[in-house]
Design a protein that fits this description.
single chain, four-stranded mixed β-sheet, D-Maltodextrin-Binding Protein, domain 2
Length: 455
């Protein structure tokens, strides 16, 4: 046991001192924090007001385009050709030209711009024109537009999960899907990342003949276990540092730029409000158009938002976090042992492909079937894949946010432990022989001889 601890210590200290580990530990949180920071920063860069000139030959839309914080509309007195020639000199972002048609109601317009107009400006203009044309058509047909607006309704379908004791709690299928998929994909990435690190380390020591010196003092099985556990500790250390540093960077940014973030969120809400039909609430039902902005900015309590927070509370994050740690470590140990066995059986990384495929197929299959599992987390396929050791790290983590019976969870944990022990025994058989074998191309028949060999 002392020798395994020494190997673990050697593997851990050697790898955390490497330049690549330090660079990735610093770069990882920066990249993850950038996912939160960059949108706000770009919004600040793109925050200038865009000036749009209007030439409306129909005379129907001049007073319909209301300026916002990001889009300002002005009426142009010149003709279209003159306006197009002066588009740069007058600092116009775009020119909206609505030609007069033979029909009583126009259904098209042209947006001239020196650059490609962004989708927000285009969508806002289309929405205003659509609403006005619809209103004109309804009036021509003798239908009051206000009546049609009043019957437009969005349905909020809240899900309530009932326990065996009859207790009720709100849940969210979308939130459970998001949490499960994120946990599953993280485990998938880290198993591949650090499993491959174990394999490359074994191949490197084997090709450098360092292993010949090491195995003179320790048994091959002790060397394999020490390497697997050592790299696992490196992975957990890096993952923990990523989480901590990301939270620090994001929290610091939010504290320094809280005003800019609030302004960005407010502008996004206002644009979203202006893209809605007049008089229709984002949650369904009808409210006066002048109150939509107050509703979006917190004037009225949004039932959907309250429901989301209640749904978050319905997820047992204690079980999710503990299960994530177990399946992260257990899945890595299982695949790490198999990756170590592959590394000991070959002389170069190019020779690993034929042995990698049958091992990695179950892991890849887990991600491929993730959508099917999320659609039916209690089905027979989800159950069997969540207890099979090679697929359970990903599939069980996808199922857990939906609520998994503890019998399924305990069975999966027990089988994962047994699977790890079996994979370690199998890998030890291959590792013991292959680690000292050089210059011979290994096939499956040869591996079977090593596994079935008896001392």
């Amino acid at each position: 046991m002392n020798k395994i601890i020494l190997i673990i210590k050697r593997e851990y200290l050697t790898r955390v001192k490497k330049r690549s580990f330090i660079i990735m530990t610093i770069l990882g949180p920066i990249l993850m924090a950038a996912l939160f920071i960059v949108p706000v920063y770009i919004a600040e860069l793109e925050g200038e007001t865009k000036l749009v000139g209007i030439i409306d030959e129909t005379g129907l839309f001049y007073d319909k385009f209301r300026s916002t914080e990001n889009i300002k509309f002005i009426t142009l007195d010149s003709d279209l050709e003159t306006a197009k020639q002066n588009i740069t000199n007058e600092d116009l972002y775009a020119i909206l030209y609505i030609p007069k048609t033979e029909l009583s109601v126009p259904q098209s317009g042209m947006l001239y711009s020196a650059k490609q107009p962004n989708i927000v400006v285009k969508g806002y203009i289309k929405n205003i024109m659509r609403k006005e044309v619809e209103a004109l058509k309804l009036s021509a047909s003798g239908v009051d537009p206000d009546i049609l607006k009043s019957i437009k309704t969005n349905i909020n379908l809240f899900t309530i999960k009932m326990s065996e004791g009859g207790e009720e709690e709100k849940s969210s299928t979308e939130l459970s899907m998001a949490v499960g998929f994120i946990c599953g994909i993280l485990i998938y990435i880290f198993i591949f990342m650090y499993g491959a690190l174990v394999m490359r380390g074994v191949i490197e020591e084997k090709t450098n003949r360092i292993v010949e010196v090491i195995v003179s003092s320790v048994k091959p099985f002790q060397l394999m276990m020490g390497k697997i556990v050592g790299v696992a500790m490196v992975g957990l250390t890096q993952f923990a540092l990523w989480v901590i540093f990301t939270l620090i960077i994001v929290s610091t940014f939010m504290s320094f730029f809280s005003d800019e973030i609030s302004s960005y969120q407010s502008s996004q809400l206002k644009i979203h409000n202006e893209m809605l039909p007049v008089g229709v609430n984002v949650n369904g039902g009808e409210i006066p158009s002048e109150n939509i902005q107050n509703t979006l900015e917190g004037g009225d309590i949004n039932e959907s938002v309250i429901s989301i927070f209640e749904s978050i509370q319905s997820i047992n994050f204690e079980v999710v976090i503990l299960s994530f740690l177990f399946f992260f470590i257990g899945g890595y140990f299982l695949y790490g042992a198999l990756f170590a066995a592959i590394g000991s059986a070959v002389d170069s990384e190019t020779d690993t492909q034929q042995f990698m495929l049958p091992i990695t197929v179950p892991l890849i299959l887990s991600i491929v079937l993730s959508q099917f599992i999320m659609n039916n987390p209690d089905g027979p396929a989800a159950f069997w894949l969540s207890i099979f050791p090679l697929t359970s790290p990903v599939i069980m983590m996808i199922r857990i946010p939906f609520g998994v019976p503890y019998t399924d969870l305990y069975l999966s944990i027990v089988l994962m432990i047994l699977g790890f022990l079996g994979a370690t025994w199998l890998a030890g058989k291959i590792y013991r022989t292959g680690i000292l074998m050089y210059g011979k191309k290994i096939n499956y028949k040869e591996l079977w001889k090593w596994i079935t060999y008896k001392n």
